[in-house]
Amino acid sequence: MDSRVLDSPVQDIKGIGPQRARAFEKIGIKSIRDAFYYLPFRYEDRTSLSNISSLVPGDHLTVRGRIISSDIRYFKDRRGGRLRRFELTVGDGSGSLRAVWFNQPYLSRLFRVGQEVILSGRLQTDGRPAPGLEMPHPEFEVISDGRDSFIHVGRVVPVYRVTEGITQRQFRKIMFEIVGSFASEVVDPMPPELISKLDLSGLGESLAELHFPSDRAFLGPLNSKSSRYHRRLYFDDLFYLELGMGKIKKNSTDSKGISFVCRGGLKNRFLDTLPYRLTGAQQKVVGEIMSDMSKSVPMQRLIQGDVGCGKTVVAFIAVLNAIECGYQAVLMAPTEVLAEQHFLTIRELSAELGIEIELLTGSNKKRRLDLIESGTIDLVIGTHALLQESVRFRRLGFVVIDEQHKFGVRQRALLRGKGVNPDVLVMTATPIPRSLALTIFADLDCSVIDELPPGRTPARTLLFESGQKTEIFGILKDEVAMGRQAYIVYPAIEESEDTDLKTAVKGKEIFEKIFPEYTFGLLHGKMPASEKEHVMALFKKKEIDILISTTVIEVGLDVPNASVMIVVHAERFGLAQLHQLRGRIGRGPGSSFCLLVIYEPVGEDARRRLEIIVKSSDGFRIAEEDLDIRGPGDFFGARQAGLPDMRVVDMLKDIEMIKTARKEAEALMERDPELRRSPLLRQSVSAFWSGKTELFKTG
Ligand code: ADP
Ligand code: MG
Fold first, then answer.
1. Which structural domain range is residue 197 located in?
2. Over 60: is that where the pLDDT of 633 sits?
3. Which residue of 148, 204, 319, 605 could cross-link 329, Cys pair, CB 3.0 to 4.6 Å?
4. Mind listing the pLDDT tens digit for each residue in 11-60?
């Protein structure tokens, strides 16, 4: 859309004063363009309304008629309270029905006998001695003035989500005017070849049809948001997304990076001291990374792999390669616990290698920034704190980002900016459904570690009600008595006024009384980093038998001797979270148990989550199911990853369309990387990405 008119405020439109403008703004509409993209959430077929006499109870339907009478009745409810029932008798010449509302006194003021109304709702028989038809709590519209009724009846009618300050009918009328006056101003930025190749509907036409459908044949697809007009808008979003991703990738690979070529002595010395052999999948991925690193195009690679598949060691091998070639490296993790854990692991792994490693987190005060800047430190491990301006490197050549989806495109760019086109390796242990990965990581090459180190036995996952203490404690006791360790995970740290949740602090007190013979530790996000580090170290050294914690252990904590995890209030946790938590056990030989304990009545979604997690240990399957339950908008995804908001969500399930969008975006970028031949498109893509990243140099 090019036209400036579309950017003018809705207030310019007749019928929208300051008060209505505020109502519009409340639902996110400031400009005429915004209004176009504010789609109806439902459509109603009012092409031909049925005679009341022919209606059948049980159906959801719409009728039009005149108000014959209105009435207020009072009832006693079961507890003796007074119920107010407002009734409207509406007739259309063929028959009549009653619309009824309980306890909504203001309604009686809205209607007058003789007015024409449209009612839509579910029809039922009223159960009185001479049964009539009744429609409880229908949606309604008063046709006060017949002049504009062609907008509201006799067609497929859009139903919008409106807010206080404007009625459905007023809103629809304004939309009708906007669409009528401005749809012709909508200029389609999509290259015409693509429109015909992919058989897309035009943008102006699509928007107009989405608001005021011209044909009732579209009713079904419109209501399921799968009409060709919806698909056109989905495609726009995906195409702009992919073009932006393609441009980001191009901007970084166009620049000359570092070609890491050296003898590999450090790396080999490390592999010689490693107490295990890399799995086939790890070797394959190490090979892919080494090949990338040797090229002068900056690497942008993602390693995906389920919890426990051994990504850390793979990343570390790449880091060693960079260090040997004379560069500094940095590893950024999303939480302090995880950063500290990486620090401890890597310090241990590299004890013999003589490299300088530094931990840099928000709460770690003894920073040696000067040594980082002078190049003495080879590897800096840390959190967001790494992004601060005061952190400068002498020769940063290699960037590793763990749990990539917790950071945005922008943060990745910031970190990369501390070096001169360093190679970037990002890792994620949260398996991402393919459709989502294709979009949110579209600018990365992807490696998958799809094999667990040998000798792992997946944890047995069992579901308990909170009352089954004997069984739960039995398993806990058996394992700890054998010298294994346990986690007990709580959804909250401390008691508070507004929750009845079981908490970690209280839980520790209780468990210490039940099992005085065991040692306990407490780990949660509010503890100072030094204390957390201390507790983790004690747990690793087996000086703590049972670690009581919150979800801070979700990512990373690696103690192979731990064989039991009890999740308190399991119904409260998300699927991905449960999978991550469970990944803390089953990391060594021998069996292990994940006990999910339910404390509250479980809703349908929670039940589904728990069933899946009990049944499956495959992270990718779990992620697909998670996406299915939560929907893409809610999935950890797009927003956190720093991507533009999708104007029309719920598209991420359509892998075919994503693939098409990607293919076409790549092809177009290949032909015309700056989109010089499609200025309108370039402008739309920039606008789509605005506030996120600058895609094109100027104009
Ligand atoms: P991830 O980060 O992928 O969840 P980690 O890198 O933390 O997994 O590795 C999990 C555990 O597996 C660590 O204890 C690590 O030492 C061990 N490990 C990694 N690779 C292998 C391997 N090839 N053989 C045996 N153990 C391995
Ligand atoms: Mg890890």
1. 3-44+175-221
2. no
3. 319
4. 888 778 888 888 899 988 999 999 999 999 889 888 777 788 888 887 77
CA pair distance 582, 457, nearest whole angstrom: 12
228 within some domain: no
Q: Are residues 20 and 134 in the same domain?
A: no
Residues with CB under 5 A from ligand 2 (ion): 312
The residues pairing with 425 across neighbouring beta strands, listed in sequence order, are 301, 400
* In a shared domain, residues 550 and 444: no
User: Which pTM was predicted?
Assistant: 0.66
DSSP at 278: P
Tell me if 603 is assigned to some domain.
yes
| Ligand 1 close to Cβ of residue 587 (< 6 A) | yes
Same domain as 550, residue 409: no
266-280, 295-309, 438-452, 675-689 — which is least confidently predicted? 438-452
- pLDDT, mean of residues 124-146: 77
Q: Evaluate: CB of 279 within 6 angstroms of ligand 1.
A: yes
CATH code, 107: 2.40.50.140
H helices of 460-574, in order, are 469-481, 504-514, 529-540
Q: If pLDDT is split at 50, 70 and 90, which confidence band does 554 have? A: low
Q: Domain check: are 275 and 376 in the same one?
A: yes
Same structural domain, 532 and 484: yes
Pocket test for ligand 1, best of 306, 558, 579, 592 (most atoms within 8 A of CB): 558
Q: Give the pLDDT confidence score for residue 639 in this predicted structure.
A: 45
Cα dihedral 606→609→614→619 (10° resolution)? -150
Residue 361 domain flag = yes
Choice between 633 and 222, residue whose per-residue pLDDT is larger = 222
Is position 677 within any domain? no
Q: What are phi and psi of 653, to 5 degrees?
A: -80, -20
Higher pLDDT, 165 or 425: 425
Residue with tokens 């008595």: 481
Q: Could you tell me if 420 and 311 lie in one domain?
A: yes
134 has a pLDDT exceeding 70: yes
557 Cα–ligand 1 center, Å: 11
The protein residue with its alpha carbon nearest to ligand 1, atom 12, reads 310
Is residue 302 within 8 Å of residue 444, measured between CB atoms? yes
Residue 664 in contact with ligand 1 by CB distance below 6 A:
no
Number of separate domains in the chain: 4
φ, ψ dihedrals at 505, nearest 5°: -60, -50
* CATH code, 353: 3.40.50.300
Do 33 and 54 belong together in one domain? Answer: no
What is the token pair recorded at 499?
Answer: 């929750």
Instruction: Please check whether residue 514 is in contact with residue 473, taking contact to mean a CB–CB distance below 8 angstroms.
Output: yes
In a shared domain, residues 147 and 181: no
- Nearest protein Cα to ligand 1, atom 23: 278
Dump pLDDT digits (tens) for 177-217.
999 999 988 999 999 999 999 999 999 999 999 999 998 88
